[in-house]
Amino acid sequence: NRFFSTDVTSSSFRLVFFLLLSQDSGFYSLDFFPGGDPAARRALQFFWAQSSLVLSQLALFFTYEVALIPESNVFFFPPQRTRVTTLPFFLGLGQGPLQVLISDSGPHSFQVSWAPVLDSVAAYLFFYGPLPGNSARLLQVDGRHNSTLVEHLAPNTTYLVTVTAIYRSGKEKSLSAKACTLFFERGE
């Protein structure tokens, strides 16, 4: 195969491909979206000499449809296609943070805190989405912080919350918890 994935994690993967283009013959377009949701399509363009690319900040445990399109003004090359599924958190590089706490739940928000906070963490990626479902939103939190307020949520809904520590070394560790928003309160 001329086009394949490697280094798959819960939020990223590397695409590797054989060079098809030369300096004078064009560039590559890359099209990708979570399977079943073409409206979430993202597109990139890059130079003819590039033979790998990392896609990051992806949702965990999603299958992505990926198409590599060599754009040549000399030859016709058909699009190269592949599917890649990101890992669920429990297949990542170990468990951590050690604790995720949900507090201050309301109809439209809740607070998420985690521990410990380590100097070796550059940032935390924070994924949350309703259960059941396969849609997740992403927030990024600076590595010096250990909590965030999640807002604009649906009332009376259970959410899966995953906190992923992105270490300065490049490794990732995740832990998930469930959080529930409250029913509407009178007067809302």
Automatic annotation (TrEMBL):
Its main location: secreted. InterPro entries: FN3_dom, FN3_sf, Ig-like_fold. It is found in: Secreted, Extracellular space. GO terms for cellular component: extracellular region. Keywords: Glycoprotein, Repeat, Secreted, Signal. Residues 96-187 form the Fibronectin type-III domain. The keyword 4Fe-4S does not apply. The keyword Coiled coil does not apply. Coiled coil: none annotated. CDD domains: FN3. Signal peptide: none annotated. This is VWA1 protein. The lineage of its organism: Eukaryota, Metazoa, Chordata, Craniata, Vertebrata.
